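Figure 6 in text form: structure in, sequence out.
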């Protein structure tokens, strides 16, 4: 049976050296991977351009070769094909070793039908690729502790891994409809639904990650109100007892969890929760780290018989139409998403560390995009930030 085991995550990542990279080059033939780039809308193409430069650097210096292809998703796909993602693009995503996505959406498409709205492209990718495990690390870079909305002592060293269930729950449950009651009233229904296996597999991902980090899992649900919460709680409790009793488990009500995240966020290590709570709690956790422009994510499927899993990597932030095209967007979340791809899809932990340490190094030098501005720091644009990260990668690997 395929295992849900994940490669180690970034906690306590050590500084990489190019020696590792060069020596593994000699020992193994260089693998080639297909990476599908879906820049999307708004600032998506701008931040993706910087990730592409990092990919080029890795192709020249790393232990693998990435063949990239680029395609449309979201509003840009709608403009071209009349739908938020074309079947051919989904086929490419299914065939690729990994997908890197920018962002989707914008006011330009406010008027399109619900089925064709830009977000539908992203949701279809998640569903068709069966990307049930969404990993959203909320890490506070030391240089940014003062950019957080919380006091430094609450966020310095913060390292939370949110594990959000991504293919079930109210996002996809049926019925999902608005009916006209014929008396001037309408009735809207969304369905929150979870089956045992869906909770089991996301729970295993969370416990497995916790073993490689702080060995603690919080599971957030609303079992005091929702039947799906009762089942969630029951399944997490059983999987813990049967398979992961060495890991510390705490159940927490999702509303209390939202409160605890701003009261004392460092109590959390891994936080596992459903699709909707995970959507909200991950935005909240992201903001603790200084800016939504910092945070990457990985959406993973189950491993197949060749021990490979479908995967999509994307920044947590949106398409920021208000600043699109002006060259000021922060590319860090997209570049950090590429680092997650290196770690989780390509087993290139040294290169992932290199990219993440380069990001930290650039921030330590006081370089900031506009979203991160602090007194005494220097504002640079999207391209300069990408260039600074690449220069730092050069320096760190020299
Ligand atoms: C996210 C986003 C998406 C979601 C939107 C764009 C559909 O908010 O990835 O968190 O709700 O999942
Ligand atoms: Mg969201």
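Output sequence:
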């Amino acid at each position: 049976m395929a295992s849900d085991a994940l490669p180690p995550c970034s906690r306590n990542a050590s500084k990489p050296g190019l020696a590792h990279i060069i020596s593994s080059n000699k020992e193994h033939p260089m693998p080639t991977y297909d990476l599908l780039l879906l820049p999307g809308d708004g600032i998506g193409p701008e931040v993706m351009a910087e990730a592409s430069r990092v990919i080029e650097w890795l192709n020249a210096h790393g232990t693998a070769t990435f063949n990239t292809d680029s395609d449309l998703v979201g509003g840009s796909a709608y403009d071209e094909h009349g739908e938020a993602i074309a079947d051919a693009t989904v086929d490419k995503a299914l065939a690729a070793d990994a997908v890197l996505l920018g962002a989707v959406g914008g006011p330009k498409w406010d008027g399109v039908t619900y089925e064709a709205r830009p977000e539908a492209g992203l949701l279809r990718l998640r569903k068709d690729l069966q990307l049930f495990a969404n990993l959203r690390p909320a890490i506070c870079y030391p240089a940014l502790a003062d950019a957080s909305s919380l006091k430094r002592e609450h966020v310095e060293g913060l390292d939370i891994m949110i594990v959000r269930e991504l293919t079930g729950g109210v996002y996809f449950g049926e019925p999902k409809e608005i009916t006209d009651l014929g008396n001037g009233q309408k009735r809207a229904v969304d369905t929150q639904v979870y089956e045992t296996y869906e909770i089991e597999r996301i729970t295993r991902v969370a416990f497995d990650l916790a073993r490689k980090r702080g060995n603690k899992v919080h599971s957030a649900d609303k079992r005091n109100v929702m039947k799906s919460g009762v089942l969630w709680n029951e399944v997490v409790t059983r999987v813990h007892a049967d398979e992961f009793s060495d890991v510390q488990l705490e159940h927490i009500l999702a509303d209390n969890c939202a409160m605890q995240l701003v009261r004392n966020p460092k109590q959390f290590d891994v936080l596992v929760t459903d699709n909707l709570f995970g959507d909200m709690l991950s935005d909240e956790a992201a903001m603790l780290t200084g800016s939504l422009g910092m945070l990457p994510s990985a959406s993973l499927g189950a491993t197949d018989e060749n021990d490979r899993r479908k995967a999509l990597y994307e920044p947590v932030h949106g398409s920021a139409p208000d600043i699109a095209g002006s060259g000021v967007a922060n590319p860090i979340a997209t570049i950090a998403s590429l680092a997650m791809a290196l770690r989780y899809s390509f087993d290139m932990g040294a290169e992932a560390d290199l990219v993440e340490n380069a990001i930290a190094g650039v921030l330590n030098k006081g370089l900031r995009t506009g979203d991160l501005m602090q007194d005494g720091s220097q504002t640079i644009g999207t391209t300069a930030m990408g260039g600074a990260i690449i220069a730092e990668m050069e320096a760190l690997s020299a």
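Caption detail: Residues 119, 122, 279 surround 3-isopropylmalic acid (ligand 1) (CB under 6 Å).
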